Amino acid sequence: WSSVQHHDGAAVLQAMTATLTHRGPDSDGQWLDDNVGLGLGHRRLAVIDLSAAGYQPMRSADGRYVISFNGEIYNHLELRQMLNGAEQAPQWRGQSDTETLLAAIACWGLQTTLERVNGMFAFAFWSETTQTLTLARDRVGIKPLYWGLRDGQLFFGSQLKSFKPHPKWHPEIDDQALQAYFQLGYIPAPLCIFKHTQKLQAGHYLTIQSHQNIQSCHYWKASDIAQQVILTQSSTEHEESLDNLLTDAVNLRMIADVPVGAFLSGGVDSSIVAALMQKNRSTPISTFSIGFDVPQYNEAPHAKAVASHLNTDHHELIIKSKDAYGLVPTLSEHYDEPFADPSQLPTFLVSKMTQKQVTVALSGDGGDELFAGYTRYTLGNKIWQAKNCLPNWLVKPVAAALTKQGQKLSSSNRVPASIKPFLQKGLRLSQLLNTEDFPEFYLQLVSAWPDPQSILKHPHAPYRWPEHPSSLDTTQTMQWLDLITYLPEDILTKVDRASMATGLEARVPLLDHRVVAYAWQVPQSLKQCKGESKWLLKQVLKRYLPDNLIGRPKMGFGIPLAEWLRGPLKDWGYDLLTNHNSEISAIIKHQEALKLWEQHLSGHFQHHRQLWTLLIFIAWHRDWQK
Fold this sequence. Notes:
The chain is 42% helix and 14% strand. The chain has helices at 6-18, 76-84, 97-108, 110-116, 175-184, 222-226, 235-252, 268-278, 300-310, 321-325, 344-355, 367-371, 375-389, 392-410, 420-433, 438-446, 474-501, 513-519, 535-541, 561-566, 570-578, 582-585, 590-602, 608-624, and strands spanning 27-33, 38-44, 58-59, 65-73, 119-127, 132-137, 146-150, 153-157, 197-199, 204-210, 213-218, 260-263, 286-292, 313-319, 360-362, 505-507.
């Protein structure tokens, strides 16, 4: 809502919309009601109904409703059939899913519509009848939605950069969000890097009738999904059920009026998506992968072998390290908040490559969270169990001794260099031993910077996970926490920003809400079975690929970050640490940062995660000030 005068309002709205051109290069539109001070802007990436009938913001035929919608409603044809049977069937003007969503809300209301849609979305819906604005985000947070109140103005948009042209927008860094960022490397919802601003949480919607009457509601809760009754089926029945469900989820996401392909790394998740896409297709689907000229980070041969067996039309690009790390200084311009997942770089590169051939790409994200695929789940359980084997009276003294000895010897020149990495691990272990409960333990385990107080001049209270359902075991607790934090605000943020920055739409079939619900009804014994993670998912994949293409060790989508910071990124990092403004000097402990930098450059310590988190923040801050 804006109180900007009419002659300025249209120009401001146009400028705000223009900041999102990368997300929608095909067309733009604005709708402004000066009487209520509300404006909606939209940039379109045309995927369903490429005609003008799909332009947004879209107004209903009777003029009572307006919507600005980002995403896709995959079951919109089914919803249209249901609406055609309603007492007052819509008079359709086109074939877009936007029109379907608009008609569904008008006919059934918001809550029922949100429960019935299958899709990824963030939208703003205005009802002139009730003078109510609604903001909504999909169940698992595939699409982003920021909102906030500042100086009597309500702002909302897909990215924070859309707020910058507004004359009332004056951003200030939020200390609590900054603390969470340094711990995790990303900022979990509802926190936002700026004060008076939030990320709308997944599965939630806001209704706004005035600035004083804002209500947040959930229509889908991960905690309810995680506490469903486990299905008592045989492993074969589970395998068949999962295969059928995934097949339908993939088929729905292949519906488009533009070319569709798939990211393919050769891992379990992307391979099963590609296999199900190729299933029952008479012509090869398009698959895309990139590789690095550094063997231990090169997944291209695995992807090529999978593509060859599936007989896809495979596209491969081997990236030279100098071309890849040359993009690092530009990364922060694509992310509105500091974001320190190093796999953002290969994700951006594969998106850029893929967009040259297709407009939509299916991704395998979500499999690790749903089917317990991360190696940290196994590692976390082992360390937690070992910790619990120690008598309570011994835990604190051991942790204190490890900390004291590690800090003393780490800075000593008399300690052999070969010993120092072990001292660093001892310090890390002491932090894990000092935790009081399992959620705190897991937070320490995944933290990029376990102790942000050591680098931040004015630290906030440590970030704490949302309260988890008490009925979950330790593995399920890790999965649930990742589902509501790491997945939407790291993994899906990374994919959304990278794909949208290149004019590509990424779809995530493993995160179909039916698959998410079903995965939590599968016994843990079928997720981690016979020493294997994602066992049930692999059993489905074995229907389409031979064992030798499935059983390779898990390989992250990463970059040789530690080596790059000592080599080709050394000058970039040093410049950021030494040539920053007074605002950064007021936030960061400069001497501590330089000490960490020198230790890493020596090669005796591995501080790349902490340094990357710090450097990305400084780079983001520099870019945001432009």
